[in-house]
Amino acid sequence: MIPRICRVTTGRRPTTRLGSLLAAAAITGASLLLGLPAHADEPSGGSAAPKEAPKVDLVLDVSGSMRITDLQGKSRISVAQQSLGEVIDALPAETDFGIRTLGANYPGDDKTQGCQDSKQLFPVGKTNKVEAKTAIATLRPTGWTPIGLALRGAAQDLGKGEGTRRVVLITDGEDDCAPPDPCDVARELAAQGIHLVVDTLGLAHDDKTRQQLLCIANATGGTYTDVRSQDQLTNKVKQLIDRSDDTYTVNPVKTAGTDKCESAPVLAPGVYSDREKFSEHRVYKVPVKSGQELRASVSVSLDRAVARDYGVLLQATSATGQELVRGTDADNGRNDVISTGLRWSTSDSKGYVTATPTASASAKPETTVCLVVSNSLAPQPGVQADPGLPLELTVDLASASPAPEGAAMGLGRGWILLLTLTAAGLVFGLLFGWIARWRIAVWREN
């Protein structure tokens, strides 16, 4: 789109008007030479279907162990309360947010009764921030840790729908009330197909707690974070709430990439989930027909502490290993997700790939494209490498983009474009040189 030309007042109206007209004419001429449109396309009519509001239920452990003071000299509950106050202040207006507690109400020694202590503190919906912050600020560490019961309650709080619902579990210990075992509950919820993801954040750092929280997250496609500071907790919860806006009408399909293209799974357009080990390559196959454009993206979630300075690579290669196109991204530890993408069409093959004839004479020939996902991640000392890091791969096939206007004349390619621009620059230089001399002559006459 050509930008609108603004008139600048110089005190010489005839000169300014003539100069503006000539400049406009010059830019219009350049547009015609280069094949650029003179006007932007008008937006198409119609409206998209209304999007379901993101839904997040925060489950907070208020059991007796949350009194322990081991996070930057503060108690675990005070760190959680201060962090969640900041999170609530930053809540997006469109997000439906709720709070559920576990171990917050029963102070006695009767385990049977204490293991029923999970309560909806604030219903999932549009949040009155003052009321929500006040409710959290008044909590005091009290009882037991019925995580499995709380997860079932959170699923009920969120209800059902087409979009993905998110549970954010903040706890400092493993469930001491099983049954139900929280890992079994997470698998049970995942099997129901209710689009529920559980992200877990651990305030304690023992192996049993870590394993249980990893198990819950893995079963539902969520993430686990080992929390070491108030800022880390605040930032992580904010990121998870922001991510809840990326909802799907269907859940990602689980797949398993291989190390070779020959044995890789064949993917149709859709969203897929997998797990990739540190510094691993995982390969998938996509058949691309003549006239189609492959569009793919991958996101790798850093659900545990990793060494600084890392990257992810997404390659499209031919079946023989010839690279067609690549997308890369890198970071130094500031984000918990790293993503990249690519686009490729059969018209870009340049002889690197050969289309395979199909069985039907009327069907278009297909090219097998291998998608290779690689990472340069490494775990921090003491962090478990298994299971692999969760990744999400999106595959789409669209009609290949048409060639730009003027391509038939060779414009936009090599020397022809260079010569065209040189000639246009010479013409415009002479034109504006004449305008400058004319302005000087008018100034001298006055």
From TrEMBL:
SUPFAM superfamilies: vWA-like. It holds the Pfam family VWA_2. The keyword Membrane applies. The chain crosses the membrane at residues 415-436. Keywords: Membrane, Signal, Transmembrane, Transmembrane helix. Residues 55-244 form the VWFA domain. Residues 1-40 form the signal peptide. InterPro entries: CLCR (IPR051266), VWF_A (IPR002035), vWFA_dom_sf (IPR036465). PROSITE patterns: VWFA. It comes from the Bacteria. This is VWA domain-containing protein.
